[in-house]
Amino acid sequence: MIRFSHVHKLFARTGAALQDVSFQVNKGEFVFITGPSGAGKSTILKLCFFEERPSKGEVKVYGLSSAAFGPADVPRLRRRLGIVFQDFRLLEDRNVEANVAFALEVTGTPPSQIAPRVSRLLAQVGLSAKATALPQELSGGEQQRVAIARALANDPVALVADEPTGNLDERATRGIFQLFRDINSNGTAVLMATHDLDLVRRSGCRTIEVNRGQVVFDSASDGGFRPSGPLDATEDNA
Amino acid sequence: MRLAVREALLAFRRAPMLSALSITTIAFSLFAFGLFGLVALNIRNALRTVEDRVEIRAFVADGTGAEATGAALGDIGAFPEAASVRLVTQAQALDRARLELGEFSDVFEEGILPASIELRLKPGFRDPATVRAVAKRIDVYDFIDDIRFGEEWVEKLHRLRNIATLAGLSLGLTFAIVAIIIIGSTIRMAVMARSREIAIMRLVGATNGFIRAPFLIEGFLKGTLGGLLALVLAWVAVAVINRFVVQAAFFDSWMGAVGVLAGASIGLAGSALSVGRHLKRV
After folding, report:
1. Which of A15, A175, A210, B62 has the fewest CB atoms in 10 Å of its CB?
2. Average pLDDT in the A98-109 region?
């Protein structure tokens, strides 16, 4: 579903962000991307939803190759992916249901289908009672749930989440993670970048560790979850 | 399309101050351009009135037969440059002189003034070279004693017209460019204010065409409203000038429509450019 083949990413100002990164995320898989700040986690996610193009190598997502895509392919791909960020990226002047409906409206969903779908999505993320609230009236965890509902609006085959629990307290983090697990159990692949090593350890999910733009560990190929030592050490060195 | 129109209208409600600022900026930019247009229009009208008086007067020798002058009148009237041609007899010339110079009316005696052929030229044939060429063609008749067309005056008028046209074009172009820059910046501000919304639209898979549509509609509406407001301001300005300064002409309905359409086009083009640049950047 998502395949990185010898991907390099070079930024003009900051130099190499990724070097020879290769991995594959299969359908329905839950994968964590971990690593210290500046390791290249966000760059990997941006390459997944074609916000960036690789300088070398190939990224293939849901059949679409970074080597051969046109401007019209990007919106088509993003409708098949759900994207979630640490800072939620909600429209502050619209209420919860309008924020979720927005994703359906801009992708051309027939108006008659929007309201029932929004209700179903809000029920799925546990926010039916807050449908008319504005984002600033919600807690961080609730705002992230709205963002997740929006990301799910177009029935994505995969969710790409960049530090989705980075702004949340422990309790909200557990709730959001559980929500991702529930979504994943319904067959949606999840690729989540995070700093939260406790969360990663507890989950038992596949983990790809990145450091200085390179994949230094992949539990799928290196076997099991990496003990805490090296991961903490790299973070301390960052 | 329905969603694009709704989003465009909602933009006015969500940011009323910014929308009002955009419309006012467009209106005042077009108003400044419109005022200049009115000055140019009134100068052109004044010049046209003066130009209407450009005529060639060919004095007929005493004793010329009516047959000869009649034939000449027919020939000259058939010139492509001729707007009107008429014969002023000696008696008519005397009457006119007495009327125009009333206090010297007793000075003029019968037969003192010659008959003449007076030719007025069509617009577009009133430049010195054409007037001179037509005069030469009339001068070939044997019975023409003298021919006058105020050569120096025609040349001065022509020069004045050229200067007015050149100044009008360059000033008009400058005003138009300034208006486009100001309007473009205002619309750019409106686009920047909604950059978050644009970024979210792109993330959830909206096409560039879909993202552009509400901004284009918004720009078109703001431009149209700005154009209408500019027209109203210009009308008020002319009404005040008419009342307190001098009688001035206003745009006809066709020109007014072109002004509003210019506002709408600038709004549309400004939006297209701003949102296009923004989409390229994000």
Report:
1. A15
2. 91
pLDDT tens, residue order, chain B (282 aa): 777 888 888 878 878 888 888 888 888 888 888 888 888 888 878 877 877 778 899 999 888 888 888 999 999 999 999 999 999 988 888 888 888 877 766 776 776 788 999 999 988 888 888 989 999 999 898 888 899 887 778 788 778 878 888 887 888 788 778 877 877 787 788 788 888 888 888 888 888 888 888 889 988 998 899 999 999 999 999 999 989 988 888 999 998 999 899 889 888 888 888 888 888 765
DSSP collapsed to 3 states, B224-256? HHHHHHHHHHHHHHHHHHHHHCCCCCCCCHHHH
Element (H, E) at A18: strand A15-25
* CB contacts, 8 Å: B204 with chain A: 78-79, 83, 102-103, 106-107, 150-151, 153-154
Using CB atoms, pick whichever of A78, A89, A93 lies closest to residue B205: A78
Tokens representing residue B124 in the block: 């577009």
Q: Would you say the C-alpha torsion B34, B36, B42, B48 has a positive or negative sign?
A: negative
Q: How far is Cα A226 from Cα A106, in angstroms, rounded to an integer? A: 42
Number of A:B CB contacts under 8 A?
48
Q: Give this complex's ipTM.
A: 0.81
* Residue contact A83–B203, C-beta within 8 A: yes
Give contacts of A 38-77 with B, CB under 8 A.
49, 71-72, 75-77
**Å from B15 to nearest chain A CA?**
10
B234, B31 in Cβ contact below 8 A? Answer: yes
Beta strands in B105-218 (DSSP E): 115-121, 144-148
